[in-house]
Design brief:
Blueprint (H helix, E strand, L loop, with lengths): L2 H30 L2 H27 L13 H30 L9 H28 L2 H27 L5 H29 L5 H13 L5 E10 L2 E11 L4 H19 L2 E10 L2
Parallel strand pairs: 2-3
Antiparallel strand pairs: 1-2
Helix pairs in contact: 1-2, 1-4, 2-3, 2-5, 2-6, 3-5, 3-6, 4-5, 5-6
Length: 287
């Protein structure tokens, strides 16, 4: 499967799953009056918006560099992940407010039946499957937007488990359990939002982890013919990694031989990081 179509297919499947789960949860949540299920329905609605944004983001991020975007369109994926973070935080406000009101009222009776359990169990199965598919695609194509979606939906599994526990307790007329379950969902969402937002902002301001930079330095140092190196700079934009470095080679080498060493450096970096834009400056070593 071509690279671009693989990313788009994974994102599109996520959209389809979000549409199905949102509709299913709304119908069951309204018919049973379960705040836990309704909070999950709202969460799934925002999931749908996030999935649509991710789908558009992976389409745009694959566009080649042009005169207006000299370094490509990869940052669109980072922006997509940041916007998803804002949507997740928005989810929390409504859930916390409504759950707090119900707890203050001493709990609201809900109707727990087959469909109450069915919608949550189906949600867990669907989220587990699409999280696996998205993460596999994210690793294969180095897509931060797909990885953000995968992380998002993997935590949805745990929030659904919490809602399921609330429904079980509500079946024994412990109705406050449903509101408490909804609050737990909100806390899970807040935690995920923080992680996604931190990563997205870090990438948007050209941050690089110490581990990634260390890997780049180790790779450059391992290439035969490199005497020493300096001015290493690394950043990422969506699936692309940008590397700049100055390497020193023997002053006795010809231009062709020196260029061959820089080519070995570039190939070694691409072997490790995949899609890269690399700028290696060669200097004669005087030591």
């Amino acid at each position: 499967m071509p690279k671009r179509s693989g990313k788009k297919q994974a994102a599109l499947l996520s959209v389809i799953a979000a549409v199905f789960l949102t509709a299913f949860k709304v119908v069951v949540g309204v018919s049973t009056g379960s705040l836990g299920i309704l909070s999950e329905a709202l969460h799934s609605t925002l999931d749908l918006v996030a999935a649509l944004i991710t789908w558009f983001a992976v389409r745009i991020s694959d566009k080649p560099a042009d005169k207006d975007h000299n370094f490509g369109h990869g940052k669109v994926e980072n922006l997509s992940a940041l916007f998803e973070t804002l949507l997740l935080f928005a989810t929390c406000f409504w859930i916390v407010y409504e759950a707090s009101c119900r707890l203050a009222a001493g709990g609201v009776g809900i109707e727990v039946g087959f469909w109450s359990y069915a919608v949550v169990v189906v949600s867990i199965i669907v989220d587990a499957n699409r999280s696996r598919v998205l993460m596999k695609a994210a690793k294969k194509y180095k897509s931060e937007a797909l990885e953000a979606d995968a992380l998002h939906f993997s935590t949805d599994i745990w929030s659904s488990v919490v809602v399921l526990a609330g429904l079980v307790l509500s079946s024994f007329e412990i109705y406050v359990a449903d509101s408490i379950a909804a609050l737990c969902v909100a806390f899970v969402v807040m935690f995920v939002s923080y992680r996604l937002g931190k990563r997205s902002i870090f990438a948007l301001i050209d941050g690089v982890s110490a581990h990634t930079r260390s890997e780049v330095c180790e790779i450059i140092e391992s290439v035969e013919g490199v005497k020493r190196f300096h001015s290493v700079r690394v950043r990422s934009a969506g699936p692309e990694t940008f590397v700049e470095a100055n390497i020193h080679v023997s002053a006795n080498l010809s231009i062709v031989e020196a260029h061959d060493i820089s080519t070995h450096v570039e190939n070694a970096l691409r072997k490790r990081f995949g899609k890269c834009i690399i700028n290696v400056h060669i200097e004669p070593d005087s030591h």
